[in-house]
Amino acid sequence: MMKLKGFLITVMILSASLLWSGCGKSGDTVVVGGKNYTEALLTSEIIAQLLEKNTDLNIERKNNLAAAVAFEGVRSGEIDIFPDYTGGALIHYLKLDPISDPVEAYNVVKEEYEKQFDLIWLESFGFNNTYANAIRTDFAEANNIKTNSDLAAFTKDLVYGAEHGYLDREDGYYPMCELYGYDFKDTLQMDVSIIYQSINQGSIDVANVYTTDGLLYEYDLTVLEDDKQFFPSYYCAPVVRKDTLEKHPEIEEALKGLKDCATEEDMIKYNYMVDGQKMSIEDVAKQFIEDKGL
Description:
Layout: H1 2-23, E1 29-35, H2 38-54, E2 58-65, H3 67-76, E3 81-85, H4 86-93, H5 102-117, E4 119-121, E5 131-136, H6 137-143, H7 148-151, E6 159-163, H8 173-180, E7 186-190, H9 195-201, E8 206-210, E9 221-223, E10 236-241, H10 242-247, H11 250-255, H12 264-275, H13 281-291
Parallel strand pairs: 1-2, 6-7, 6-8
Antiparallel strand pairs: 3-10, 4-10, 5-8, 5-9
Helix pairs in contact: 2-13, 4-5, 12-13
């Protein structure tokens, strides 16, 4: 009797195992990485959900990674794919000068990443998350300031605010001042999370922002046109290991709909859903996919 019970238990375990394997996905596991800020987490989740929707791959997520950790992770094979930006790739990892032309920047990083790192840049989302200068709209309208050049005549009375480290960047504060003829009264560096609060309260007069910041949706600010094209292109695209793509060419097919699917205005809206409306990254990614018909 005990042998019979043991046999039946074994049969039940094997049956359950077969049932589970039959219901699960049959493909290999692909790890999708995400850096540690809203837009990077959002674009990473969009990639993950599209791969889950359009392939048989098992998708694992590794999020909240520092930029350098994400890059080293995809090089070492700890992650297979993550979204990155052309400007950062040029400056930090290829050690090249910034390029303002978006097509040229993309082509350079695509060629050099494959040559140097065996990493493939897939098609860009189409939006440019670069730096910009923003001022309060009432000040802009009162003084007819629309461009970075227009701002130059007023800078001696203004305080410039930026995130920590921006003053030391090769594409940062001092080269910008030289090009546009700025002579600010003072500068303040702060965590990016309080820049908008600071300009709203008058602690700073000009804020260094990103062109797809969700909080641009909430505060009454005017983003100035970069009329001399100082700020480099930071176009976002999935970056995938070459060996992963060779093993799973369906990844490229599953993500082809991302090509030029989003504008800066789109990303401000979706980033604000997370930062302003406190929706989850997962829900906003799902909404993005639905809105774009992906």
